[in-house]
């Protein structure tokens, strides 16, 4: 029964992560129509929080499974190898972004992705720019989440031991590091004065919460019915308030005429780099409601009808790199076709192509990889 439950949980996590990756793709296509309907339009966070939280949850689950099978030492080594794989994926993604931006610039396509991919710097100083990417000092368009992800996975074995033994001290330490994160950011190598797009000293809080949710659910989840009901009521209130705030945030003309200027200034903008507190609160409110949906079996039922999306989430690193290429490629196509910012019909066509490519290629890659695993197991059995 535990094996079945663990498999179901993995499928549910893969589905949610697959949806988050689709959101990341369309959110990074300038002019996208579907980007108007992703999570960032309805809450005060976006798919990045989902991706990092689930990375922590998956790292904890993978460590526990490997530890039970091969021991703690082997589990730690596997996570460190995974960290190296993520770093290589970052370098590949960064180089691809530079090359795609270079092609768009050479074709004189007026897409914002040209500057976002840092192609002008690459054209001016190709060797220095590539060395900066390898050294993590430069993190081109979309690829910027991968360096901190690699750091988190590499340090996960240490974090896991601490979280399992002292969950309260672990989360308090994570919160303290998050509070100090703006002062620590300058310690990281960066070609930009503002530093890394994702401050890992801040975003480790999201990863840590994912780890703790998987490793110590007894510590995270309330046991008493009355407390659980209070959590649910609070989560609904937070989700509704954040939905209203997100709606107003994107439509300042609705409140500028009557709301005192200092009120929105206190809350907005919500800095993503340092993981603003309101982003964390918004995420936690919706995360609790999603957890209830998972417990009720709704997410698992949905996963049965969304197999290709589950495959995207299951093979997230490959699909992340693919999605980065698709984002830049589709933006270049739509801007090139329109000769500037595309009309909504052109942009929507680009969105459909982007999602279709990710579903088809991601699904094909997943099936191919799983078929290889089955073949490898068959050879072992026959031997």
UniProtKB/TrEMBL annotation:
Membrane-spanning segments: 15-35, 47-65, 86-106, 146-163, 168-188, 200-217, 229-250, 276-294, 315-338, 344-365
Keywords: Membrane, Transmembrane, Transmembrane helix
Residues forming coiled coils: none
InterPro entries for the chain: UCP028704_OpgC
Name under which the protein is recorded: OpgC domain-containing protein
The organism of origin for this protein: Cupriavidus pauculus
Source taxonomy: Bacteria, Pseudomonadati, Pseudomonadota, Betaproteobacteria, Burkholderiales
